[in-house]
Amino acid sequence: MNNAKELPRDVFIDVVLEELPRNPNLYFISADLGAKALDRFRVEAKKQFIHAGISEQNMIDVAAGLALEGKLVYVYAMAPFVTLRCYEQIKVALASMRLPVTIIGVGVGYSYDDAGPTHYATEDISCMRALGGIEILTPSDTRSVAETARLTFSRPGLRYIRLDRTFLPDVYGEGDRRFLDEGIVEIEKGKEVCIVTSGFMVQKARAVRDRLLETGIAAGVVDLFCLKPIRLDAFRAALESYDRLVTVEEHFLSGGMGSAVLEALADAGMQKKVLRLGVQDQYYFENGGRQHLHKLADLDVESIANRIRKFL
After folding, report:
1. What element of type H or E holds 223?
2. How far apart are CA 311 and CA 50, in angstroms?
3. What is the DSSP string of 82-107?
4. Coil, strand, or helix at residue 172?
């Protein structure tokens, strides 16, 4: 499989397609036909592919029925629709029943940048991590997307996988599976402060690190790949050397990744000074692309770097 410049959704679906000959019990249900890889799926595995149409709630119930019959089931749709629109169905039909269904949400954060608040996924972490028995994963590059897909074969479970809509540059090298083994990885070492983030925002954190280095501040960067559950031993190991943490997320601050980090610090008995950066309690209707939205939300590189300097 050549992953160069492939979109995360196509990488994930292609890996699932590779598994099909070995697993006749695998079923893929989609409420959307926008991905290139789905065209292959419909041709090469039409008996294991179900197009639910714009009926995401029904899609979850169908997935539950298949899972109860011992099938390995995937559901796929835009992130805001497969989470918020289906929330009660996920709680009742999947979470309460502990069914091993993989929920794939594509277009997290401001991925659908010019589609407006209806298509932004800036509340999905806070909503989904409130559910019992669910795992939440946010891959940050092509390799972690592919390895996340393979994880679903070897260790089935109820998972919400958050995929970005755009190409993600490399973060991890060949054979590096620390994100799977530990759920949290220090990808850039620092001294004074550590930036904790995930997914698309890892690249922004790296750019912020470069900007801070210009003024002599060596910031670490940590990828929180697994947002739930946070593995406390790995969490301690990744963050214990830092006195100050900055969480950066393309998500509302209430209940998001920063909140999860604060909860993990309390559970681990760790005391750190923490600055949470994310989307304030406001929806943006302006067009202009993702970077424009970041500037409005003070999530552009310069704004984040300035906030960190003041924090120090």
Report:
1. strand 219-223
2. 50
3. HHTTTHHHIIIIIITTT--EEEEEES
4. coil
Helix (H) or strand (E) holding 204: helix 201-213
**CATH ID of 8-163, from 3.40.50.970, 3.80.10.10, 3.90.1150.10, 2.60.40.3140:** 3.40.50.970
In degrees, to the nearest 5, what angle opens at C-alpha 304 toward C-alphas 222 and 81?
70
Comparing CA positions, the residue from 119, 109, 280, 275 lying closest to residue 202 is: 109
CA neighbours closer than 13 Å in the CB half-sphere of residue 289: 4
Reduce the DSSP state of residue 137 to 3 states and report it: strand
Residue pLDDT tens, the chain, 312 long? 444 578 999 999 999 999 999 999 999 999 987 777 888 888 888 899 999 988 999 999 999 999 999 999 999 999 999 999 999 999 999 999 999 999 999 999 999 999 999 999 999 999 999 999 999 999 999 999 999 999 999 999 999 999 999 999 999 999 899 999 999 999 999 998 999 999 999 999 999 999 999 999 999 999 999 999 999 999 999 999 999 999 999 999 999 999 999 999 999 999 999 999 999 999 999 999 999 999 999 999 999 999 999 999
- CATH code, residues 180-311: 3.40.50.920
